[in-house]
Amino acid sequence: MAARRRGAILCPFCGRLTNADATVCLVCGHKHPGRWAFLARLRSLYGRHGLTGAVTIACIALYVVSLVFDPAAAIRPRGSFELFEPSGRALLALGATGYDLWPAGHWWTVLTAIYLHGGILHILFNVLWIRQLGPAVEELYGPGRFFVIFTVSGALGFVVSDTIGIPFTVGASGSIFGLLGAMVAYGRKRGGTFGTLVLKQYGQWALLLFILGFFMRSVNNYAHAGGFLGGFLAGLMLSFEDQRSETVLDHLLASACIGLTLIAFGLAWSSAFLS
Ligand SMILES: [Zn+2]
Fold this sequence. Notes:
The chain is an all-alpha fold and 275 residues long. The chain has helices spanning 40-46, 51-69, 71-75, 88-94, 101-104, 109-112, 120-141, 143-164, 173-190, 192-213, 221-237, 248-273, and strands at residues 8-10, 17-19. The chain is globular, with a radius of gyration of 21 Å. Helix 7 (120-141) packs across helix 8. It has a two-stranded antiparallel ribbon.
């Protein structure tokens, strides 16, 4: 006979204590929580709040790869104050996006470009913002929902800028604006003194950063606007932790975003290096 868990388990749907043999969870009413106990692993995996760190590591690692890809180009001075700029060729091969996305059918670049950066200041600025906003969004929404917001907003930002006709673009700033948008959505939905405070604080940051974008060299303001909108809408649609803890659905959605991002890199690199 196959080994089956007995006794007390955490319901994979609501995270409360229930029994492996129960026909329904007494807290959330889901049928046969014991049969879905394997889903509880997702809960403990996401429960570690490590996704801000994972996203940071991915950005830094891919930045290093993009420099190593074309080292001579990376250290060649180009008459600007940007140091260590990866070459356009390197960024394109690794998954940069642009207006030829639609004619070429390279949908995956709206995901891969999020993790690529065009220079040392670009990545420094973005990583600092991710470290600033990520833990707050993970705290208020939950780590799985954080990753959904990060992915959806970054992708929407690039869909907007590719559609408008920006020729070549990379960077996590669309996702960063998405995190700001999600915080604003949280403030709006939660209301009260704390909600209003969050709404004002993050709304001001978003506005300031957006305006700053117009004064800086080669900033993709369309991706910023699209990213903010994506994060705001995702924030309105997803529940936050005070309202309802992350459910299996949130964890499956986050896993789908992780899977899709990995597939996107697979497609980008196979189309760059195998064809
Ligand atoms: Zn339950």
